[in-house]
Amino acid sequence: MSVQIESVTKIYGNQRALDNVSFTVNSGEIVGILGPNGAGKSTIMKIITGFLYPDSGTVRVNGLLTGENSLEIRRQIGYLPENNPLYTDLYVGEYLSYAAGLYHLKAAQSRIKEIIGLTGLEAEKHKKIGSLSKGYRQRLGLAQALIHDPSVLILDEPTSGLDPSQLVEIRHLIRNISFNKTVMISTHIMQEVEALCDRIIIISRGKILATDSPANIKKMSATGSQTILVEFEEAVAVDKLLEINGVNRVEAGPGRTFILRGDHENLRALIFRFAITNGYTILTLNKQETSLENVFLEIIK
């Protein structure tokens, strides 16, 4: 079970929404499509689901070409669009019965009961959709995407607008259902990528700029800069810290805490020697991990 994109190009007028894009997503893998607004993320997902067709290139879902097997592919895909369109006047159970009917499911009521339990909708199943919180509406959107047990799950901004507790719940839910499925998530939320994704595809202006695990993507920083958090027992002047070999930027934090940035590979050792030479006592000395957000911005720029 997989999604294979090969040399796909999509043009709107004078704009290349996708420009010779190729990648594969395998079963059991959660892959995040990451990029700024207008990068081409939603276009990729609409092409995979059959809502759009590429101008050139091929898309295969579980070995089937989208242009030739559109209906069969849609049976194998679960899709949660960004705006999660729901019929707010229906009850939760009614809506899921409707979704099950679209797929002509046998033993539909049994499957609805199962999916309500899987997505944590048991306490809300007798409520109208219009009365549900944003978190429960997202759960319901996932429920309809999963009702027919698809092998490929495509989620466009699945956690947009959720509060922190709802974020954790939806992440946990996606992780639980991804074990034997091909999962693609479009997002611009870095925390989401690090919490959920096995691999990231960074896209900008229709081109893929990088693809790797979140940990490896963070190693792609072109600056090679290190960030060190240091706290002294004594008062230390910022100008004095800038004298340390390899330090090119100093930010004062609360109390006697400083953030030092530099490109020397042994920056912590140099700071420690500086303290000994000048009679300062170090209370904290930690290397801060490069953020995915900073590396992302470097890559797309």
What structural keywords apply?
Rossmann fold; 301 residues; four-stranded antiparallel beta sheet; 14 strands; Alpha-Beta Plaits; six-stranded mixed beta sheet; 2 domains; alpha/beta; elongated
Polypeptide structure, described:
The model has no long low-confidence stretch (mean pLDDT 89). It contains eleven helices and 14 strands. 32% of the residues are buried. Helix content is 34%, strand content 30%. The strands form three sheets. Strands 6-7-8-3-9-10 form a six-stranded mixed beta sheet, with helices on both faces. The protein has a four-stranded antiparallel beta sheet with strand order 2-1-4-5, with helices on one face. A four-stranded antiparallel beta sheet has the order 12-13-11-14, covered by helices on one side. The chain is an alpha/beta fold. A hairpin with a 2-residue loop joins strand 9 and strand 10. Helix 3 packs across helix 4. The protein has two domains: 219 residues, P-loop containing nucleotide triphosphate hydrolases (Rossmann fold, 3-Layer(aba) Sandwich), CATH 3.40.50.300; 75 residues, Alpha-Beta Plaits (2-Layer Sandwich). It starts with a strand and ends with a helix. The longest helix is centred in the middle third of the chain and has 14 residues.
